[in-house]
Amino acid sequence: MKKDLKIRLGQVGDYEIRLLKVFEAVVENGGFSAAESELNIGRSTISTHIANLEERLNLKLCSRGRGGFLLTEEGAEVYELMKTLLSALEGFRSGVNALHVSLTGELRIIASDAICMDPQSGLSEAIARFSEAAPDVNVLLDVRSLSDIERMVLNDKADIGVIPYHRPLTGLDYRTLYADDCHLYCSRTHQLFNAKPSPELLDQVLSSKVVHAGIHTSPQVGAQLADMNKAAISYFYEARLAMILSGAYIGFMPDTYVQRYVEAGDLRALVPETRHYSLEVCTITRTYGRANRARELFLERWMDVVNHARHPN
Q1: Which of 87, 166, 228, 274 has the least C-beta neighbours within 10 A?
Q2: Which residues of the chain have pLDDT under 50?
Q3: φ, ψ for residue 233 (rounded to 5)?
């Protein structure tokens, strides 16, 4: 028989909400150790918070030991109830914001790497314009992997995601910002850096070791990599660039991201006439949910910046 939570739990205040958010991070990261970096607290503190939550709920939520982290049946049910509660709280915050002329609260933006500093994105100017229009809204900007961004927006952990477009997902709205042209690059220490155009060059390129993102993005990317020697995986652009600069690998990179390395003579594009593709960069937001005026205002300002860059006159 289930315990009577109305009697055992009583009021749910700020402290309980904090404990539930710790529990949420532990569940979604698959354990205490994995949740440390997200929560920025130690494992012993996380363990204490979970123990306190279990005491308040009078329920055993999870087991942790040699067998690893495992949710109990009651823990899994509490997790689902908690998601409903936190979503309702977020809906309340957004609803109250919508009632005010002056916006408050937080706007959570999660971007794929390289996009934040891409001059084509106009993100810095969009933040400046938004902050002037809504000075009481705190903008939280972070960088995650593509799949994490989609999951966070769908689960209402982020208000706006920014990703290279690669597939449509039910529950998400997409708005195109700009397109990134990508070419195949090698460093000046690679054996092909000084190679002259020739019929043999393409064969040499195809036999060279390629570092790539390791995920399916667009059909264009898949077609470019299909006949290449895929020898290493590095998801984030910064890490992939380091591997290319090592001279051991070649790889595709956005032109704007590596422009300064090309100008400095550290990188060159290989067979640029045939080895290139374009990636659309877009924002993603939840299709369903309450209106979010801060989110819509930010997107409006951002699109203004991008459109002005495309059509300055």
Answers
A1: 274
A2: 1-7
A3: -120, 130
